[in-house]
Amino acid sequence: MASGGEGLDDISPDWAGASLVDLTSPELAKSNTSTLDSGEDFEVLDNDEEEEEGRDEDLSGLPPLEDVPGNDGRGTAASQHPGPEDTEETPEWVDVLGSGLLKKKVIVAGQGPETRPVKSQDVTVRLKTMLQGGTVVEESPSLTFTLGDCDVMQALDLCIQLMEMGETALIISDAKYCFGRQGRSPDIPPDSSLELEVELLAAQDAPDLELLSGKEKIELANRKRERGNFHYQRADYVLAINSYDIALKIIGSSSKVDFAQEEEEGLVDVKMKCLNNLAASQLKLDHYDAALRSCNQVLEQQPDNIKALFRKGKVLAQQGEYREAIPILKAALKLEPSNKTIHTELSKLAKKHADQKCVETEMYRKMLGNPSGPTAKCKDKSSRSIPWKWLFGATAVALGGVALSVVIAARN
Q1: By the 8 A CB rule, do 240 and 10 touch?
Q2: Among candidate residues 77, 166, 155, 158, the one with its CA nearest the CA of residue 126
Q3: Is 374 exposed, middle or buried (0-12, 13-18, 19+ CB in 10 A)?
Q4: In this structure, are residues 138 and 19 in contact, taking their beta carbons and an 8 Å threshold?
Q5: Phi first, then psi: what are they for 211, rounded to 5°?
Q6: How many CB atoms lie within 10 A of CB 230?
Q7: Collapsing DSSP states into helix, strand and coil, what is residue 65?
Q8: What is the phi/psi pair of residue 151, to 5°?
Q9: pLDDT, mean of each 10-residue run, the chain (412 residues)
């Protein structure tokens, strides 16, 4: 593993300005590499190149993986979707989510509800993207992506499930289902609602994972991972986790094709990057147990993976397990002694651990009735939080002391 500071592997700050076509193609635009000690709290995603992480604040407001109400299969939303005859006579808007934030209107009728695509199919559309007012910001004659995999903005993912083959529709979407609070520099301002003109050209089942070659599997998993990095950069951590999970399922799927040694190694490399990035996303959402499992999966195969060690240390620290976190961070620092981010984190943990021990000592003293006063160093620490296991231990010791006193009194 290349040495480097903490961060999500493979984050590209320039992706926020990438077109939809760029984001679904095998090769994404590359940004300038950054040093490991970028001051970003060791939060660099595993990419083919080390790159800087996006902003930490939640910039999207994007809901977690919303779905089209009642659309659980092919043609199940027919009651919400106007038929061909109705559409030609009186085109009406369909409120896709019932909130008024995402609406769809048929312009050219399709071939019938039974031709609607379903999730996990690869669909191809013609797309024109416009700002409110009609300014065209992007046109794509043929955009292909996997429906339901969050490969494109949610407005498309949700509405295409209600389209028929050959249908042309107009979609009006609130910013939260498009590019959110960040927008897309330079052509889509922050918090911009968009109008989308979409024609459904084709839909077919996705390739059978069991029949993919090693190279094809690596390329497909990498595309999903890169899309996860795009979501992470925009602080859409739920969607990032979804993309990383899909990539891991692709890598872990069974195969009827023999892989070369180089392909096996490539799959392992992508898997480690996905798990590292998954742990970073889970950590952002305070899903500590899940993040710990992701880190451990990396360390089982790569015990010296610096990013996994660092993140595991951070997870344990967030749980108040300073005694366990410190040696893990020391192991990471030993692998990369010049890493300033690890130095800083280790110093903070050492101080917190010392404060914790001081509070525990004072608590034991009070519970056991020791009249001796605490050291000046320990004063004013009692308001700090104490891990439950130490509180439990102190209580047990105190109860044991009371029980012993009762036994001695009874004997006397």
Answers
A1: no
A2: 166
A3: middle
A4: yes
A5: -100, 0
A6: 24
A7: coil
A8: -80, -20
A9: 47 44 42 34 52 40 51 43 44 90 96 95 97 94 94 94 96 94 92 97 95 96 96 93 97 94 96 97 96 97 96 93 91 93 87 70 64 51 47 56 59 60
